[in-house]
Amino acid sequence: MAESDSSPIAEFFQDRGVLITGATGFMGKVLVEKLLCCCSGVKTIYLLLRSKGGRNSRMRLEELLNAEIFRNIRKKQPHLLSKLVPVHGDIILPGFGLRPSDMTLIANEVSVVFHSAATVKFDEPLKRSVEMNIIGTRRLVEVCHKMPLLVALIHVSTAYCNCDRDEVDEIVYPPPANPQKVIDALEWMDEDLVALITPKLLGNRPNTYTYTKALAENILVEECGSLPVAIIRPSIVTAAWKDPLPGWIDNFNGPSGLIVATGKGVLRSMLCQPCGTADLIPVDVVINLVISVAWYTATKRPNNIMVYHCTSGSQNRLTWGELESLIFPLVYAHPSKEVLRYPGGSFKSNRLRNEISVFFNHQVPAQILDFMARILGRKPNLGLERMVQLYSRLNRAVSCLEFFTTHEWTFHNSNAETLYEQLVGKDKKVKF
């Protein structure tokens, strides 16, 4: 085989057993699809799935495979789907709450683990965020210590776990608090007390997500022992660039939701620094790096925990002002079918101007529309009656992003660049 046709990464995954947590999430879905398509020689992909909404793990797997991104596999290579095996378990339980037979199966079969399970809600209550992001990571490490074949444990973090720093290197920084002390303290506190002390615990971090992801990295460092661990830190993950489908996304979190709200004419103003970097990264670029790091970690065996920033600001910089100039021509050229008002408005760099604009362009129209709905005899919770509630949710969502649209960071990514230089053949073309 010519070198240009070779794929060391695909060869590495040949006949391997893989475990994925968070497979039903945005990045998890793309990871599953990419492994099946580009590393089709993989033996088995075990998906840790908990019961949810009355659906067991098998039902949730069926729901996952009905996602649009698996359409080509369903039509052209349906046999690949048999490689997916649901394993019933919960990330926050000791041993994932696995049955002894499932634990034995995973221990004997899995050699690569991808950990992407997390709560990514910025306004998640601290207790829940600690359970998922910190305790969940600890449970994962405990299970991985029982895997004699393990050659790579890849943990998906976030570039913003160190957002209290202006310049961030590819290293694990000292945690903002002792993870165990935080866990112990929250065990006896009620929700009201936790909510009261949360701002003090967060310090310079804007939300529970970035705080608990920083602590989770420390858990990995302190408890992984000799496990082959690597950490991926993506910035703001957005819709797919190329694969599995250009523009594919399954949620309205972050900038995607703002673009949709702008297209519907709902969002008219938000606070940001137009010259600040909008560090957006397509989900397929992130997943390509995640898979590449698994191969590199297993074959090169670094002596320490490697951290990889998956960011765009230092290589392909886009500002929030440039993003604004791109959005409006697109929403005019491709109008939404559910337009409430003609799209308009702008980003504001001055807080007072933004608050005034929000009052006149969000709150006042919402009150007027709801008042008209009542005058016309509309039933509660139908039609325009929900405008005040809709704008309340929108304002909460925008306020959660405000810290990231008004601050700027420098993320160094020499480790990621060095890894890309190691790729050859097909892997380099895909930038795997």
Count of alpha/pi helices: 16
**Portion in strands:** 5-15%
Rounded average pLDDT = 90
Q: Could you estimate the helical fraction of the residues in percent?
A: 40-55%
Query: How many distinct beta strands?
Result: 13
> What is the end-to-end distance?
19 Å
Instruction: List low-confidence stretches.
Output: 380-385
**Main sheet: strands, sense, barrel:** 7 strands, parallel
What's the oligomerization state?
single chain
The topology string of helices and strands comes to HEHEHHEHEHEEHHHEEHEEHEHEHHEHH
How would you write the strand order of the largest sheet?
A: 3-2-1-4-5-7-11
Assign the structural class, choosing from mainly alpha, mainly beta, alpha/beta, alpha+beta, or little secondary structure.
Answer: alpha/beta
Describe the 3D structure.
Mean pLDDT is 90; it is low at 380-385. 47% of the residues lie in helices and 12% in strands. The chain has helices at residues 8-13, 26-38, 57-65, 71-76, 100-109, 126-144, 179-188, 191-202, 208-223, 254-263, 283-300, 320-333, 351-375, 387-405, 414-422, 425-430; strands at 17-21, 44-49, 84-88, 110-115, 152-156, 167-168, 229-234, 236-238, 269-271, 280-282, 306-310, 346-348, 410-411. The chain starts with 7 loop residues before the first helix and ends with a helix. It is of the alpha/beta class. Catalyzes the reduction of fatty acyl-CoA to fatty alcohols. This is Fatty acyl-CoA reductase. Its EC number is 1.2.1.84.
